[in-house]
Design brief:
Largest sheet of chain A: 7 strands, mixed
Helix content of chain A: 10-25%
CATH superfamily of the largest domain in chain A: FAD/NAD(P)-binding domain
Strand content of chain A: 25-35%
Oligomer: homodimer
Structural class of chain A: alpha/beta
Largest interface: A-B, 50 and 50 residues
CATH topology of the largest domain in chain A: FAD/NAD(P)-binding domain
Chain lengths: 314, 314
């Protein structure tokens, strides 16, 4: 059975930064992930990760990967399907097949897009329904699309689509957009974006592909149907932490509870990034917290916890 | 009197990342600092800030500055000499002259190098005594130098100097280097680096410039004098938080006490980076925590604290 010092689950900003730090401590590190880049991949134009200038999210994540590889991180493509504690070590099963042994684990597998749970959503997924305007937007050139969600993801998505599609409907359940003011200002200036407030999607209809969406105004209860070619569901993301729930404490949103340096309720398991309860979901924050979890994991493996205990005296 | 939403004190990784985030929230932001780059400037080769590849610290910090400027941050060159609370706002005095008004403050002024407090240290500062191998190393080409300190700064400094100087003495008070294993391995391979363990510097001697250093073995109490041309004091750094001590709580190391998102004991004042009690001092960690402090400062100014209170329920 393969033996590692640290298995990092997830290859987003948190996981790959953690790998840079554990590898620099000469710890044998593998990253297990189904993708490279995590939530940052969903941004076509990341401009608030300082030091790199603006670029597409996937490009930035490729650079993170190069850094992790440079210092010796091993990438294992696959899904972690089981995590078991065995005395002071852990057994990690990948794709229900191979099992590896590790002294410590850093959980950094982020979030997955949330669903509306309305008729047509699953049926037309990939045939007009998408959860990533950045990824699938280019498929809707000169077409009509709807975006569900008025937070940063939805508003930025509408902005992006306004450059590609002829008409964009931005459907938001509240009476005001929740995105950053700079983004709200921009989207309001777009002539081909119609913002529909106080409204929820109730059904997605079509034949082979999406043809229309039914929406309901929650103030007047009036329903209407809009003809569209695609719908982007951008209502945030959720943590799927089932595989480790028997080992670490989570909150009501399934987020893994960590202290200030990524320590979970289970000795030897650390967590960082969107998978934790940290309120702000940002690439640079995930990167910073990935470094903290890695350094604290190193302290744990070398039996040095004084530094942090000292910190907590406040 | 000039009025700002946010004054950020210090232009290192934490302060400049905070500025990127507050400016993107359309908050009128000024950064007051005597330098650009803070502690990151002291690194000639930063390779653990993910996404940028290796580069000199000052170059990376210049990129951070470009990002902050791009989003509208105003840079004010100077030292904050006084901070006063006036009702719910603050008065910030710069260089004992100009006073500006602000709704909130983010403290991110980092640390300054620690001193040995031995004879000759002050007398020869700038004439053979330096606190930055990265900055002043090139002045000692083909000369003999000593480095005091066996942590990351000292060990990396010795490594760097070994490429420039003919002979490097690395003087460390403990019996083992405390730097990252990867760095320790490298320095041990250098034929022109002599590591002197269990020893402290007791005096720096010279005429116009440094000529020798006296060191004492703390196990045997034997003293010896080594002829050198320069000495690099790399024993860490300390926080100088006197100007805000009447407003925010600090610990015995003068570090400003913050919660998980940079909130200090004084409403309206936030802090991030090396100036706080966070145990790991790293560029990427300062950047991440700068973003958290900025987003929480935005929450404070917009009266929204629910997100974080929710987080603390754990």
């Amino acid at each position: 059975m393969k033996q590692y010092d640290i298995i990092i689950v997830g290859a987003g900003a948190a996981g790959m930064t953690a790998a840079v730090y554990t590898c620099r401590k000469n710890l044998k590190t593998a990253i297990v992930s189904i993708d490279i880049g995590g939530q940052t991949n969903l941004t076509n134009h990341i401009e608030n990760y300082p030091g790199t200038g603006a670029m597409p999210g996937p490009e930035l994540m490729q650079k993170f990967k190069e850094d992790a590889v440079k210092f010796g991180a091993e990438f294992i493509s696959g899904k972690v399907t089981k995590v078991e504690k065995e005395k002071k070590e852990f057994l990690v099963t990948i794709n229900n097949k191979e099992t590896v042994k590790t002294k410590a684990i850093i959980l950094a597998f982020g979030r997955v897009p949330r669903k509306l749970n309305i008729p047509g959503e699953d049926k037309f997924f990939g045939r007009g329904v998408s959860t990533c305007a950045t990824c699938d937007g280019p498929l809707y050139r000169n077409k009509v699309v709807a975006v569900i969600g008025g937070g940063n993801a939805g508003t930025e998505g509408a902005l992006e689509l306004s450059e590609i599609s002829t008409q964009v409907y931005l459907i938001h359940r509240r009476e005001e957009l929740k995105a950053d003011p700079i983004t709200v200002e921009k989207v309001k200036k777009k002539k081909n974006v119609e913002i529909i407030f106080n409204s929820i999607a109730t059904e997605i209809k079509g034949d082979k592909t999406v043809k229309s969406i039914k929406i309901k105004n929650t103030t007047t209860n009036k329903e209407r149907e809009i003809e569209i070619n695609g719908v982007f569901i951008e209502i945030g993301a959720e943590v799927q932490s089932e595989i480790v729930k028997h080992l670490v404490k989570t909150n009501e949103r399934n987020e893994i509870l960590v202290d200030e340096v990524g320590v979970t309720s289970c000795p030897g398991i650390f967590a960082a990034g969107d998978v934790t309860q940290v309120p702000f979901k940002q690439t640079v924050i995930s990167a910073g917290d990935g470094a903290k979890a890695a350094l604290q994991c190193y302290n744990y493996l070398s039996g040095n916890t004084a530094e942090v205990q000292d910190w907590k005296k406040r």
